[in-house]
Amino acid sequence: MAINSQTGSLKSLAVALRDGTVSARALAESAIENHEAHDATLAAYKTWEPDRLRAEADVADGALAVGIDLGPMQGIPVSVKDLYGVRGYPTFAGSPRELPPEWQHEGPVIQALRGQLATVTGKTHTVQFAFGALGTNPHWGTPRNPWDAKDHRAPGGSSAGAGVSLWEGSALLALGTDTAGSVRMPASMTGTVGVKTTAGRWSIEGISPLSPTLDTPGTLTRTVEDAALAFSVIDPTTAADPDTFLTAVDRADVGDFRIGVCEAFFDDCEPGIAEGVRAALAELEAAGARLVDITIPHLDEVDTIFRTGGLSAYEFAGFISDVLPDFIADLDPMVGSRFDKMTAMAASDYLIRRRRLEVLTREAHAAISDVHAVVGPTIPITPPRIEDVREPSPYMKANLMAARNTTVVNLLTMCAVTMPVALDAAGMPVGLHIVCRQGDDGLSIAIARAFEKQLGTARERLGPPPLGV
Fold it and tell me: Which helix (H) or strand (E) segment is 234 a member of?
């Protein structure tokens, strides 16, 4: 039994595990087989330990065999971004050497999945310390986007291996983190579903930080339906009553929602991106979605703040200088070249910037209070070819443009989901960005699920990638 998008939903696999149609060990062996078949091409993982995966699968099967059912993620293969501490696995955070042992500590996100005996397939590649939008890493190499069989294109960053692991068929759920779009950018670039949670909703304990103010754990999945199930398990509020949440998500209909279309997100899109999103929105409107034009104020100012370091550059500089100073000399040149600028901001300037963002956040939330969500393209650019972004100037241009739409959500304390809806002119996936107010995480997933029921999943709408399963 191959693990791929034709295997069925996480929900159906959970049923199959319990009725004996499939075992956790069989899922693990299929994950291993798929990885071995694709790793030389796709290179999704930094650390891959098949024997550990098999052992965890056997524990999950053994528990089910004696009637111990800990939840729907029991026996489900999960890949983990190499920023998370996972017991028994080293944490490199994209660095050329392992971080100290304390960074193997498991936080609440991992604990939620461990508590249901989900199986860990391995640690996926990340941009060093998560500081990059494209997914590149000069120390360990860059995973390959499976949608281009000819050229090595960016998989999206910083959760570079996460989306790739799903199409490789080695994982059914991937964990990432999102500080300026680092879940949604790889999800959009690889044609998967990415969930960016509201800052503070999910604990960042046990995760190597980039910006504690903005860092958010998140998930990548093959479908929105799978994302809803994963959210119901990990989210500390929803986990108390997952059935009610999942029932509400499943009942959501496109006609239930008033959707704001933000034209600023469509500016300067590369060929096929705006067109693909508009076509999907037209389908949704024909199915009953209520679309209205909306403006989020001061987006130019938000973009300027992001392009001059946001908050993350300065918080990262403080962290690395204070906690891991020995790693400064090992920084990716694309990160290290900006390090002096990161350390140059005065504390007073940083505090002024934070206060200004608080004002902009209040104004943005007020501006979108009459709609359930705001939509537009997730990313305005086609995933670039790696050979085209090897030099600093083209790299920085692509890096900033890739995160232009996503970073708004982080800096303005919102939540969001990206889902694949089209292929652009280069045949690469296009994401529809569904942005909701702070704390409306469940609503964002419900809207995305309603859209998915109308538009179809990635496999149904786009077909499989040339290099995936």
Answer: helix 224-234
As a whole number of angstroms, the distance between CA 218 and CA 203 comes to: 11
Predicted local confidence at residue 2, as pLDDT: 43
Residue 129: both structure tokens together = 């310390």
Q: At what angle do helices 50-65 and 10-19 cross, to 10 degrees?
A: 60
Amino acid letter, 310? G
**Closest by CA position to 398, among listed 156, 187, 188, 44:** 156
Model-level pTM? 0.97
Q: In this predicted model, what pLDDT tens digit does every residue of 118-152 receive, in sequence order?
A: 999 999 999 999 999 999 999 999 999 999 999 99
Above 80 in pLDDT, residue 251?
Answer: yes
**Which pairing describes strands 119-124 and 77-81: parallel, antiparallel, or unpaired?**
parallel
* CA separation for the pair 50, 58 (Å, rounded): 12
Q: Which amino acid appears at position 433 of this protein?
A: H
Give, as one character, the DSSP assignment of residue 151: S
Count the Cβ atoms, other than its own, within 10 Å of residue 59: 14
Which residues, 6 or more positions from 198, have their beta carbon under 8 angstroms from its beta carbon? 216, 413, 414, 415, 438, 439, 440, 441
Beta-carbon neighbour count of residue 236 at 10 Å? 12
Residue 53 tokens, joined:
């995966």
Strands (DSSP E) contained in 158-289 are 173-178, 193-196, 216-221, 258-262
CA distance linking residue 437 with residue 413, whole number of Å: 8
Predicted confidence at residue 5, as pLDDT, reads 35
Banded model confidence at residue 347, pLDDT cuts 50, 70, 90: confident
Q: Which residue do the tokens 């696995």 mark?
A: 89
Query: Could you give phi then psi for residue 314, rounded to 5 degrees?
Result: -80, -35
Q: What is Dmax (Cα atoms) for the chain?
A: 61
342, containing H or E segment: helix 339-344
Residues marked active site are found at 81, 158, 182
Quote the mean pLDDT of the chain: 96
Between strands 77-81 and 173-178, the pairing is: parallel
- Whose CA is closest to 260, among 283, 287, 288, 281? 281
The answer to whether residues 10 and 172 touch, using CB atoms and an 8 Å cutoff, is yes
Burial class (CB in 10 A: 0-12, 13-18, 19+), 139: middle
Per-residue pLDDT tens over the stretch 88-122: 999 999 999 999 999 999 999 999 999 999 999 99
Which SS3 state, helix, strand or coil, does residue 219 take? strand
pLDDT in tens, 415-440: 999 999 999 999 999 999 999 999 99
Does residue 387 register a pLDDT over 50? yes
